[in-house]
């Protein structure tokens, strides 16, 4: 059975009212008494009743995270990072899959279950661009636009660095896998821009046959497009994949063709998924600052919840990235 206030009070040797005062951080409680109560809470695993808290304060202590799908390992790892960050803020997380729509967020907000929401995407074309944070919309019929914070990654600069890394290895025919025709503002277009900037800076002409569009950023499409590239007889000695899933698919297709990585083709991805350390060869990648994105987004949302009666201005933060060199781009 779940621990109760009475259980905590009995272990701490105080009244139920004292336990309640500690939970709500009331002043004028002796430090020694407060510590006994906190130790008892930890020992019992007591968690406040969210329904009671909501009736008293108008808040639930719960936020929602809306991701496109948890089948994509990037979003699963992002969800874990958000949950860790939320726990440090004393918040719980309700996770919804949007599957390309905002239906999940709508369900959570209409049910008045959450104080605020984090979105990993606002549309299919903006996949992987970071986290948006806003208070949960009210049901009062207000028409004002919600103030939204945005914590994002350096898409263009990061892919430029990845491409320049391959150029520095002497690669001259570098394929870009992950383009999306018609995307003009999302992650795909931003990363394609970084690829093109790197080629231009190196004085290398872009070859249309090396820019490979895909329908989805999955292992399947990474493998299929790499196989298609090779079947067409296109010469390639390097691959910049716009996420790790595409890169892992590319490694599979190259291996099936007997093409050695990195001796014949160097491959680099983007996301620094846990599994990228364990592919054969281990995948070089861009670490986009996922944990920092999660921590900052949760922190800003917590600040916005606390200042609900005094709305904060919209904030936009971009976090740094790291190029992680592993076996797939080792010097041949």
Automatic annotation (TrEMBL):
Pfam short name (any one): Peripla_BP_3
Transcription regulation as UniProt keyword: yes
Coiled-coil boundaries: none
Domain HTH lacI-type per the UniProt entry, residue ranges: 3-57
Keywords of the record: DNA-binding, Transcription, Transcription regulation
Record GO terms (molecular function): DNA-binding transcription factor activity; transcription cis-regulatory region binding
Gene3D superfamilies documented for this protein: 3.40.50.2300, lambda repressor-like DNA-binding domains
Keyword Transcription regulation: yes
Protein name: LacI family transcriptional regulator
Organism: Microterricola gilva
